[in-house]
Amino acid sequence: MEVTLRIKRYNPDLDVKPTFREYQVQVETTYRLLDALNKIKWFQDGTLTYRRSCTHGIYGSDAMKVNGLNRRACKLLFGDLAQRITIKPHLIADESPIHEERRQSPEQRERYDDTSKCILCAACTSSCPITWPHTGYVGPAAIVNAHRFIFDSGDTGANERLRLLDGNTGVWRCRTIFNCTEVCPRGIQVTRAIAEVKRVHQYGEV
User: SS3 for 74?
Assistant: First the structure.
């Protein structure tokens, strides 16, 4: 299958600030993230640099942030990840709070409580029959993590996430089969979350 890795790059001699660059790589579900990084460095971009040591998950020298979590590239399998590593799974806020933390009502917190339970196992994506023939589909796991922030009252990045989820590679590829909901170990209503993101696209209501 083909996956897209979105990697933050920075050359102090050329760049004003770090930017993301996307690389397409053919992998198997049994490949580790380090395998894909090596393919990029060896065959696409020799300037890509990263730390690695024994490649057996012992020393942790290849620890890096993946989908918002610290992971080890030599242990992380693509079978445990959504096929497209993106959708900005972190809070985006235009302004920092001045005097105190951001506050939410119980109702505002409840709006995204279900999808905040995601443990990033990607069982929903691997069980989705739409991902099998359509390798470009971002998959349920990515949409669930986008949902968690789209409906967060303290987040201002909803429009950017919705843009990334539009089209045939995003929420519109879903056929409401419910496999994702059935296999979720946390009981997240994944299909409902995808439908709610579709509704925001159609009616513009968060």
Answer: coil
Both tokens of 201, joined, read 């696209």
Q: Which residues contact 170 (CB under 8 A, 6 or more apart)?
A: 137, 138, 143, 164
Pair 58, 21 in one domain: yes
C-alpha of 50 from chain center: 21
At what angle are helices 140-150 and 190-203 packed, to 10 degrees? 60
Single-letter code of the amino acid located at 28: E
Q: Give how many domains the chain has, as a whole number.
A: 2
* pLDDT tens-place string over residues 173-202: 999 999 999 999 999 999 999 999 999 987
Q: What is the pLDDT of residues 64-101, one digit of tens each?
A: 878 767 778 888 888 777 544 455 656 777 777 667 77
User: Do residues 106 and 14 share a domain?
Assistant: no
How does strand 19-26 pair with strand 63-66?
A: unpaired
**What is the full DSSP assignment across 133-150?**
T-TT---HHHHHHHHHHH
**What strands lie across the sheet with 2-9, from one edge to the other?**
19-26, 2-9, 84-85
Question: The domain containing residue 36 runs over which residues?
Answer: 2-80
Return the SS3 of 19: strand
Q: Within 78-121, where are the H helices? A: 106-110
